[in-house]
Amino acid sequence: MLWHRNFVELIELILESRAHLTKPRIQIIRLTMTDLAHIRNFSIVAHIDHGKSTLADRLIQETGTVKDRDMKEQLLDSMDIERERGITIKANTVRIDYTADNGEAYVLNLIDTPGHVDFAYEVSRSMRAVEGSLLVVDSSQGVEAQTLANVYHALDADHEIVPVLNKIDLPASDCDRVAEQIEDVIGIDASEAIQVSAKTGQGIHETLESIVTHLPAPQGTLDAPLKAMLVDSWYDAYLGVIVLVRIIDGTLKKGMRVKFMSNNTLHHVDRVGVFRPEMEMIDSLGPGEIGFLTASIKQVRDTRVGDTITNDRNGTEVALDGFKPAQPVVFCGLFPVDSSEFEDLREAIDKLALNDASFSFEMETSAALGFGFRCGFLGLLHLEVIRDRIEREYDIELITTAPSVIYHVFMKGKDGEPGEKIDLHNPADMPDMSKVDHIQEPRIKATILVPDEYLGDVLKLCQDRRGIQENLTYAGTRAMVVYDLPLNEVVFDFYDRLKSVTKGYASFDYQMTGYREDNLVKMSVLVNDEPVDALSMMVHRDRAEMRGRAMCEKLKDLIPRHMFKIPIQAAIGGKVIARETLSALRKDVTAKCYGGDATRKKKLLEKQKAGKKKMRQFGKVDIPQEAFISALKMDS
Asked: Are residues 15 and 131 both part of a single domain?
């Protein structure tokens, strides 16, 4: 009996000595599984360069999520191209543990979103995974076009919004003016906006306190069948497809069999974890949490963003609404400079498509450029990013053809009946115009914010691009212009021209509004009487001659001279609307004729002329790749 009492005392002593080790672990499990009131899910939204990623860095550093020795700028931007350009391309998530001033422990799930209009699909789907947003506004520049666009995404997702005025360390900072602008332009209360400097760390603690006090906790039921939203997915060479999920109800555990409801595929969960920001494996995820799973999935195409994941048996009956799939709006051809690298290009594009569901492609051939791919993008920046990644990561030199949009071509019907509708991705595939009834082009609603001293230049630029003004309002000294513009006029160099005429002060955002009929024609470019498919484009008939003349003049300067004369022509159907002639390199064949009969010289010149005529007939014109890119950048 004495031995038994001593043994019990010994066990109690051991438990007391280890209590400080086991208690936190038990707390974490309880918090992870049940305590929704201590979870906050939020995103950071802002215009480009207003300090989203820097603010995310400071929040991570302030909470000790990453050790100081491992900290670096733009911590969540993992791609080299993101760091070089200083932009966020992919939305990234991180889990932060934070102990508030009231002594309560909170789990914060942060999603850092892109600011550029081309990656708005990343923003919109990230919004569906969280309940609140930090709206970051530069306290020196104020509200910009993408600030508005991203706030509307947040409001559509029914978010609670906390305004944050960043860069208060700058001499030009004016918090009162910008807070007033937020209230006037956006219509949300900015009287208690947090003033921070993400660069110096000032105001970061106040931001964290505001997150736990002002943003709502998630809703969810632990005992319900599993219902998880598929937020994002990407391919990893070692783990297969990694799926980012937000748990709505129930529990996701390692070893479960789950069903993806959109395609009814079954998978066995290998791993469950969270990002801190490195991967950290855990046993389970509960309601309100954001984490990832791997299940030996081979292709990203099998994981549809917005899908609902549930139990294999006794799963949820009602699927989540899901997201609209990203629709490419800009198309162009990618061809290897060296035709022997076509298979390498195919492999590179296949790998990139694994990690970017919004990037579409199909094979095409061109008489001038050989084999390549017709690719679809969400905008010109998206195009540039994909092109740069292929050239850098896979070491393939590319020729990029003229960017184009999808046109609706309506053919003439028989006996008064309507004809078929064709979606035209490539102007080179345009059917015979005599069989076409009419053509519709995509239109956009463009929102431009600009200081009023540049307003005249912006209005002229929009008018020159066939724009229709819809609205013009003022917020302080800044004008907000809304224009209905053809997307075809925007995808070439509209953004560059806008920045040029406003010295970089204008901001631009757009959204698709639909299709409208217009007087459009296909303009072909012929070099030495051979059509160059890569330079074919759809233009408005009224501007075709101006566009054709500009293209011919540019190509005359860009194509190197050959041993024979080269005509450069722009044509609509069989009618040539502009022409330039590139003169031949000429050898002086009469150099050795000293005096004597003039017919000797004439005979030599006639022989040279006949040779050049024959050479022009069979000669091949080499157009350098720089000529394709430079020729497409039209100056107004």
From this structure: no
